[in-house]
Every structure is written in structure tokens, then in C-alpha cells.
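May I ask for an example protein's residues together with how it folds?

___
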Amino acid sequence: MEEVLTIRTSDLIENFHLCKDISKIMPFIENSEFRKRNEIEEDTNFLQLIPYIILKNDNKFFVTERIGGEKRLIGGYSIGLGGHINPCDTNGIHSVYECIKRELLEEVGLFSNEYNNSSFSIIINTNENIVDAVHIGLVFFVETKKENIEIKEKTKLKGSWVEKKDLKNFYEKFESWSKIVFDNVIDKEI
């Protein structure tokens, strides 16, 4: 059974939503624990840490559509890739960066020498729906020059590059985190 890195919701003494300082959440990451995903998937006593990777190529963003997998997510569009931090990703802050490398390789076949270092942007910590209520997102932007990006999990996702100016055309179908990143980071730059 998959284990994922979690922090106790009760340990967060403040809401980190839209916080731009990753150091504020570092003590919680350092004291995080791995738990069985199936046991905490809808348990609001725990927040599952998710590095949420915004993949860019100059003025284009990689947008995915969920076509399979978790039923509650099918049909949504996303400007973020990513997933749970697993025990194979080591521990502490290093686990976040190891997870980014692993997820980019697993989801789109992007090797670490094919993109620039990731840059932290914001924390997403919201309760808009049950998915959001049990996850906390650490948003990173990753720049690549590679044009030919291919989704590896073809039964779950399809994706393509979208010009920054055209992202608004997907807004109504964006998942909540994508809307948050668009509204608070990307749209401020357009």
C-alpha cells in the first residue's frame, strides 16, 4: 500500500494559504510522517504534502486534462503536475525536491538535465472541496526548453503546451489549485 508524507492539520497554527515563504512550513515538513494513503485519503486530520509543478516553456504552460484515474478528478484541467511524496523520496525538504524529479520523470518523461532548477512560488492551503481539505500544495515553477513533452499515463491524462495568453480559455474547467495559481501568480504577469 502506498505511503504518503503527511502533517497533522492540528499542528498548523496558522493558515499558509498563498504564503510565498517556504521556510514557514519547513518545521512542519521536518516533523511530517508517512501514512498509508488509503487510510487518510478523506481524513481531514491530516494534510498530504503535494509538490505542485507548473511546467513552462518560454511563454507556454503545460496543461493536462484528467481522462481517467480518481473519479472525483476526471474532466478537470490542470496547469500543475505532481503527486504525493513517498518514502523513496528520502526525507525532510530533500523529499520535496526528490518528489519533483520523480514526478516529472513519471508523468512526462522529463529528466532532471532537461529542465532548470525548480523555483518555489506559493503554498496552497484551502478547504474548497474534500480533495483540497486533505492536501497542501507546494507550488514550484520549472522551466524547460524541451518542446516534445509526452504524457506517460495515457489512460489518466492528456496534455499539451498552451500559450500564456490562452490559459484563460481553460479557466472554467481548471481544478481549484490551477485557478489559485492562475489568479494569484500567472494572471498577475499577463
The CA atoms of residues 4 and 86 lie 5 Å apart.
